[in-house]
Amino acid sequence: MSIEVQNISKFYGEQKALNNISFSIKKGEIVGFLGPNGAGKSTLMKILTTYLSATEGKAIVNGFDVTNQAKNVQKSVGYLPEHNPLYLDLYIREYLAFNADVYKVSKSRIEEVIQLTGLTPEANKKIGALSKGYRQRVGLACALLHDPEVLILDEPTTGLDPNQLLEIRELIKNIGKNKTVFLSTHIMQEVEAICDRVIIINKGVLVEDKNLKSLVKEHTQQIIEVEFDKIIDTIVMANMISAAKVNDNVWEIIFNSDEDMRSKVFDYAQEKGYKILQMNLKNKNLEQIFREKTSKK
C-alpha cells in the first residue's frame, strides 16, 4: 500500500478534528478526499506529510511510519498545501534550484519538471509575476522535483479560472498514471473527471470510501419529475420504487431500472388518458451524494 491510515484521531484541546479514521490507498490510485469546510481534510493531509502529529492511531506512507520515520516520508512524498508557499521575488528556476538543493536532486531535473508541468512559456519570469494557475504549476513542479511515489495535493485548483482549472486537472491526471495521488477538493466535477475513488469525511468521521463508479452506480435510481394536465390520485408502474406528489399536478417517480423510463411514463400517461406538460430526469450526481453524506447530524 502507498498510504495506510489506521485509527487516526486528532484533538485540539477538547475539540476532536479527526475521529478514528482508517483507510488504505494502493499504488497508482487517484483518490479524491472530500468533506465540508472544517471536516478535517487538511488536518489529515498534514499528518500524512509529517507537519502535524496524530493524537491517536498510526499512518504509514510508502512503507514509512509518519511518526518514527518522518524524514523518509518527506523524501518520498510530494506535497502541495492548500496555501501554496512560494518566494515571489525568485525566478521560477531559482526557486526550483533552491528546492532541488534541499532534496539533493540533480539540477537537470529542474528542466524536466518545468516541461512536465507546462511552465516552459513562463519559465523566465519571477513567481510574483505569474497568474494563479502558473503559481499552482510551480507548486506542483516543486512537489515533483524529487520524483516521489505519492502526491498529496490540498485544494490544488482553488481560485483558478475555468481554463486554468482544466489545464491543472489534465496535468494531475497525467501525473497520476505513474504515481499515487491523494487530493482534496470542493469541486465535484474535478473528482468525476480524474479520480478512481472517493473518500468522504464529515465532522472528523469517515462517512464513505468507495470506487467512484461503484458509488455513482449505487445511486442510479432514476428520479423522474413529471407534470400532468390534471390532478392524479395514484400512480402504479412496473419497476417503480415510489411515487410522491410534489403538488397537485406534479409527481416525482423513482424507478429501479437501467432503462430510460421516460418513455414508459409517457406510455403510461397515454394509456390513462393524461397529458404530460413537462418531464425531467433528476438522477443523483456526485454533488447530491456528497450533500446527503455530509448533511447528516
Automatic annotation (TrEMBL):
<comment type="similarity">
    <text>Belongs to the ABC transporter superfamily.</text>
</comment>
<dbReference type="GO" id="GO:0005524">
    <property type="term" value="F:ATP binding"/>
</dbReference>
<dbReference type="InterPro" id="IPR019864">
    <property type="entry name" value="Motility-assoc_ABC_GldA"/>
</dbReference>
<dbReference type="InterPro" id="IPR027417">
    <property type="entry name" value="P-loop_NTPase"/>
</dbReference>
<keyword id="KW-0813">Transport</keyword>
<dbReference type="InterPro" id="IPR050763">
    <property type="entry name" value="ABC_transporter_ATP-binding"/>
</dbReference>
<feature type="domain" description="ABC transporter">
    <location>
        <begin position="3"/>
        <end position="228"/>
    </location>
</feature>
<protein>
    <submittedName>
        <fullName>Gliding motility-associated ABC transporter ATP-binding subunit GldA</fullName>
    </submittedName>
</protein>
<keyword id="KW-0067">ATP-binding</keyword>
<dbReference type="InterPro" id="IPR003593">
    <property type="entry name" value="AAA+_ATPase"/>
</dbReference>
<keyword id="KW-0536">Nodulation</keyword>
<dbReference type="InterPro" id="IPR003439">
    <property type="entry name" value="ABC_transporter-like_ATP-bd"/>
</dbReference>
<keyword id="KW-0547">Nucleotide-binding</keyword>
<dbReference type="Pfam" id="PF00005">
    <property type="entry name" value="ABC_tran"/>
</dbReference>
